[in-house]
Write a structure and sequence with these properties.
Length: about 210
């Protein structure tokens, strides 16, 4: 898997290192274990998928690209659409605390179990709608979103510290692009549009598991 990421131009060794330390099969049903280290999205039930390792790596690279320091280079990170918790586990290597929001309740339970199996203790999961942010008075130095809204919610930028970044896929299915928005000051944001991507849509409201 790491070899494939290198071939796909993931260059940040900190990110490659984190992905090599998170066993991806833990997040999947046993029937899929033989495919766990392929560079593919795979089903996790409830019509959702675990993200492709490549996109997890690319988004994490963007989030930490402002520094080449090692270790926990971020303080608080908000993750929207944490699914089974795979990206959350990767983020746990880069942030002091990860605040993860998922709209499908059984996936929240699953992700808590998965991270406790890995003894990762700096991720807090919440069953909530990511359109509402974290709903507590917290600022983040990074926000990463694994579901695509039609346009990124401007309110998310208000949750960022100056210098913080929002990494988010934007657009309708079949025409999404990866956006990286950096909050330069309280009045100025820098928006860079990167490659085409394919994410599930960001849906409003929460669900108890019915699909
Ligand atoms: N981060 C996961 C990817 C999960 S797929 C991984 O590492 O594999 C994206 C997830 O976003 C789905 O589980 C979906 O339920 C969730 N999602 C979609 N809209 C959401 C919203 N408004 N708030 C929170 N989660 C949302």
């Amino acid at each position: 898997m790491i070899q494939q990421l290198l071939e796909m131009d993931i260059k940040d060794f900190r990110v490659l290192d984190a992905l090599s330390q998170v066993p991806r099969h833990i997040f999947l049903d046993e029937a899929l274990w033989s495919r766990a280290y392929e560079n593919r999205a795979l089903t996790i039930g409830y019509k959702q998928t675990i993200s492709q390792p490549y996109i997890v790596a690319r988004m994490t690279e963007h989030l930490v690209s402002h520094t080449s320091k090692r270790g926990k280079v971020l303080k608080n990170v908000l993750e929207i659409g944490s699914g089974c918790g795979y990206q959350s586990a990767v983020l746990s290597y880069f942030a002091k605390d990860v605040f993860a929001v998922e709209r499908i309740k059984p996936l929240v339970t699953k992700s808590r179990e998965n991270l406790s199996k890995l003894k990762i203790r700096n991720v807090i999961f919440k069953h909530a709608d990511g359109f509402n942010g974290w709903e507590e008075d917290l600022k983040f130095d990074g926000i990463i979103c694994a579901a695509a809204p039609r346009a990124y919610p401007e309110e998310l930028l208000e949750l960022l510290e100056i210098g913080g970044k929002l990494v988010i896929p934007v657009g309708n299915e079949g025409q999404q692009k990866l956006f990286v928005v950096t909050k330069k000051s309280n009045t100025e944001n820098e928006e860079i549009i990167h490659e085409e991507v394919a994410f599930v849509p960001m849906l409003p409201g929460i669900s108890n598991g019915e699909v």
